[in-house]
Description:
Blueprint: H1 2-48
Keywords: Membrane, Transmembrane, Transmembrane helix
Transmembrane segments: 6-31
Amino acid sequence: MDTLQYILKFLFIFMIMILVIKVCMLVANYIGELIVGTIVKILQKIRKCKWL
């Protein structure tokens, strides 16, 4: 019985870790898209200025 409990605890922790990693990846992807979007906007503004 003890081994079964250890295995269940391990699986539970493993599932939580996978969920946390997936959430972190989603957040990182969203932040990355935001950063890329702002950089593209800044570059477009710089290109519109004739004096540069």
